[in-house]
Task: inverse folding
C-alpha cells in the first residue's frame, strides 16, 4: 500500500513538473511578443508638438527642441527645463501664455527623454544635460543674451549645474538672467523618491527586467501618485506621457537616468552652494501636496537655506506637477516674478 502511494505521488509530481514546463514554454513566446510591442502611436497633440519643433546634434545625439517667437517689442528669452520621466510637453499648457510675454520661448527634451535620442548603454548625467542646454543656446545664437531659466523637478538640478558654471565663469556657460525652480529635489535630505525609483536606481540585474516589463497601467498608477486627487491627468494625457516615454525605447533607459538621484547626493555642496551664493534673481513655485518634496519639511528648509529667494505657494491641492495641475496659477506666479525685477 505504501509503495502504491509513493508511486502515485511520484506520478503526480512528474505531471505537475510537465504542466509547469508547458506553462513556461507557452509563456516564453507570449512574453517575447509583449516585450516587442511597439510604442503607442502619437496623438494629434503630440504630433503637433513634434512637428512644431526641430532637432540639433550634440555629440552625435539628436536632441529635440521647440523655439517659438513671441512677444513683439520684447528681447527676453526663457528656456524651459522639464522633469523626470516626462518631456518638454510638460510645458504645453503654459506655452502660449509665455509667448505673450517673452520674445523667445525655448524648451528641449533632455537626452534619454521625449523625442530626443535615448542611447543605451549610456552614462546619463546632470553634467551632460547641462552641456546639452548650453549647446542648444549656442545653436540658436542666444549665447550672448541673458537667459531666464524656468525648471521643474529633474530640470531643477540641471539648472543648478548651469548656475554653478555661470557663477564660476566656466567656458561656454550661459548668461543667466533669472532662475525659477519648481517642485524639484533641490535638497537630497528632503527628497523622497518613489519606491519604484529606488528599486530601479539600485536594482542591479533586476532593473533591466523591470524596465522591459513596464507598461501603461503601472506607469499611470505610479505617476498618478504624484498628482493631486483633484488634478489628475485625463486618460488621454496619461497616454501622451506614456507614449513619449516609450518613444525610442525610452522605458529601457529609465534605470540609467535615475542615477541622477545618487548624483544629487554626491554633488549636493556644488549644487545647493550655487543657489546659496548667487546674486541672480531666484524664485520657487511650489505645489504643497507634493509627496516627493513634502510640505512643510521641504519649504522650511528652502526658506532657511535660501532666505533671499522669493516663493509662490500654490493652492493646497496642487502637487508635484504644478504647471500641469494649475497652469493659470503657475503662469501668473512666474510672470509676477519676472515682472518684479
Result:
Amino acid at each position: 500500500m505504501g509503495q502504491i502511494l509513493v508511486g502515485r505521488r511520484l506520478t503526480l509530481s512528474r505531471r505537475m513538473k510537465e504542466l509547469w514546463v508547458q506553462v513556461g514554454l507557452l509563456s516564453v513566446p507570449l512574453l517575447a511578443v509583449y516585450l516587442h510591442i511597439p510604442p503607442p502611436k502619437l496623438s494629434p497633440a503630440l504630433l503637433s508638438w513634434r512637428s512644431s519643433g526641430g532637432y540639433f546634434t550634440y555629440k552625435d545625439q539628436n536632441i529635440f527642441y521647440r523655439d517659438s517667437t513671441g512677444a513683439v517689442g520684447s528681447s527676453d528669452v526663457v528656456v524651459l527645463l522639464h522633469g523626470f520621466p516626462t518631456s518638454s510637453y510638460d510645458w504645453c499648457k503654459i506655452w502660449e501664455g509665455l509667448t505673450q510675454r517673452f520674445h523667445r520661448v525655448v524648451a528641449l527634451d533632455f537626452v534619454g527623454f521625449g523625442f530626443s535620442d535615448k542611447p543605451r548603454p549610456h552614462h546619463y548625467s546632470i553634467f551632460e544635460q547641462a552641456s546639452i542646454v548650453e549647446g542648444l543656446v549656442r545653436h540658436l545664437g542666444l549665447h550672448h543674451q541673458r537667459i531666464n531659466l524656468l525648471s521643474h523637478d529633474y530640470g531643477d538640478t540641471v539648472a543648478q549645474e548651469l548656475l554653478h558654471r555661470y557663477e564660476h565663469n566656466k567656458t561656454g556657460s550661459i548668461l543667466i538672467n533669472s532662475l525659477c525652480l519648481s517642485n524639484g529635489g533641490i535638497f537630497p535630505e528632503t527628497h523622497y523618491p518613489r519606491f519604484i525609483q529606488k528599486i530601479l536606481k539600485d536594482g542591479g540585474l533586476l532593473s533591466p527586467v523591470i524596465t522591459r516589463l513596464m507598461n501603461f497601467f503601472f506607469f499611470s498608477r505610479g505617476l498618478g501618485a504624484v498628482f493631486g486627487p483633484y488634478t489628475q491627468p485625463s486618460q488621454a494625457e496619461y497616454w501622451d506621457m506614456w507614449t513619449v516615454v516609450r518613444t525610442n525605447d525610452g522605458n529601457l533607459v529609465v534605470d540609467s537616468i535615475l542615477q541622477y538621484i545618487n548624483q544629487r547626493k554626491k554633488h549636493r555642496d556644488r549644487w545647493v552652494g550655487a543657489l546659496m551664493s548667487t546674486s541672480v534673481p531666484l524664485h520657487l513655485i511650489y505645489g504643497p501636496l507634493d509627496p516627493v518634496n513634502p510640505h512643510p519639511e521641504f519649504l522650511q528648509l528652502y526658506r532657511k537655506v535660501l532666505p533671499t529667494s522669493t516663493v509662490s505657494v500654490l493652492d493646497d491641492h496642487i502637487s508635484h506637477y504644478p504647471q500641469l495641475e494649475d497652469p493659470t496659477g503657475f503662469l501668473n506666479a512666474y510672470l509676477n516674478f519676472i515682472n518684479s525685477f
Q: What stands out?
A: Strands lie at 54-58, 61-69, 77-81, 104-108, 146-151, 175-182, 282-286, 310-313. The chain has two domains: 1-36, 44-338.
